[in-house]
Amino acid sequence: MSKYSLKDRIVFITGASAGIGAACARAFAAEGARLLLAARRVDRLESMEVDLLEAGAAAVHVFALDVRDRAAVERALAGLRAEWREIDVLVNNAGLSRGLDKLWQGQPQDWEEMIDTNVKGLLWVSRPVVAGMVERGRGHVVNLGSTAQELAYPGGNVYCGTKAAVKLINDGLRQDLMGTPIRVSDVGAGMVETEFSEVRFRGDKERAAKVYQNITPLTPEDVADAIVWAVTRPPHVNVAHILMTTIDQANSLVFNRKS
Ligand code: NAP
User: Fold this and answer.
1) Which of 142, 146, 186, 222 is 20 to 30 A removed from 232 (C-alpha atoms)?
2) CB 158 less than 6 A from any atom of ligand 1
3) Model confidence band, residue 14 (pLDDT cutoffs 50, 70, 90)
4) The predicted structure's pLDDT at residue 46
5) Mind listing the pLDDT tens digit for each residue in 65-85?
6) 197 in a domain, yes or no?
7) Which CATH number does the domain housing residue 175 bear?
8) Does the beta carbon of 157 sit less than 6 angstroms from any atom of ligand 1?
9) 18 C-alpha to center of ligand 1: Å?
10) What is the mean pLDDT of residues 179-206?
């Protein structure tokens, strides 16, 4: 069977303003897709538009969205112009970690931000988008997993918990969609060098840089490549789960630091 073509397909990526989401936008552009991109920093999305069109995107539409705001998500999706409503691929990428503290020393507002973004935000976006996919009888949902969903690490407590939740939501959704042609994939990565650690440590660049010291991390392009691969398999193939790490990482806890 031939690969699933993304030419002119509508690909909706949340959190497309940085890191893996931005790399996905470039990778799907190269496949000739129509890109629907959302994040809070809409100025960043706007600054990507020309490059994405040059890279092969059939069209680009960007909009500001905070996935934590359920009403705003519903409004934004319901308000899409007709030519952008029939989403073929949803990449639930928006996500973040905050802090690396022992549970009893952690900040409840950090927990709320992670749960509201990584779990509830993913649900607020998925509900209307998947409902449309079911109606049209086509679609693919890709959720961003992590090595953190397989095995927790010290101080990772709530972040790892949110990613474990994503894993089971993903499994449940795949079962709910049995009998439809809609595919569901969980693409999980280990350490990827993005703004992730800077966000986790609230702008402390020095601390963030140490995370990737003496190690060759994955690049956001590596993850985007795996996501595009999963989505372009022939329609009868559902890649349920990908877990990828740099060669210097075995799991959440074991690294090969060259120093
Ligand atoms: P990143 O460079 O910090 O990018 C995160 C993206 O999420 C940004 O575009 C950000 O955009 C968006 N975002 C955050 N909160 C949002 C909200 N409330 N509403 C809308 N968008 C929001 O981090 P990344 O590494 O690319 O992370 C992307 C995904 O991969 C996350 O789900 C993360 O958990 C997962 N992941 C990362 C790694 C890693 O090592 N980096 C490993 C495994 C999995 P705005 O700030 O503009 O809204």
Assistant:
1) 146
2) no
3) very high
4) 98
5) 999 999 999 999 999 999 999
6) yes
7) 3.40.50.720
8) no
9) 7
10) 98
Whether 249 is covered by a domain: the verdict is: no
User: Which of helix, strand or coil describes residue 187?
Assistant: strand
pLDDT reading at 2 higher than 90:
no
Q: Which atom of ligand 1 is nearest to the CA of 22?
A: 9
In a domain, 252, yes or no: no
Rg (CA), the chain: 18
Find the 2 Cα to ligand 1 centroid distance in Å.
32
Number of domains in the chain: 1
Q: Where would I find the beta strands (DSSP E) of the chain?
A: 10-14, 34-39, 59-64, 89-92, 140-146, 183-189, 241-244
Query: What contacts 51, CB < 8 A, 6 or more positions away?
Result: 26
Query: What residue has token string 């049209």?
Result: 136
| Distances, alpha carbon 208 to alpha carbons 100, 114, 130, 140, 211, in Å | 12, 18, 35, 33, 6
CA torsion, ordered 123, 127, 128, 132, to nearest 10 deg: 140
- Full residue range of the structural domain in which residue 165 is found: 10-244
Predicted model pTM: 0.98
Residue that has been written with the tokens 């998925």 in this structure? 126
CB of 184 within 8 A of CB of 173? yes
CA nearest to 233, candidates 4, 18, 72, 19: 4
Assigned domain for 255 exists:
no
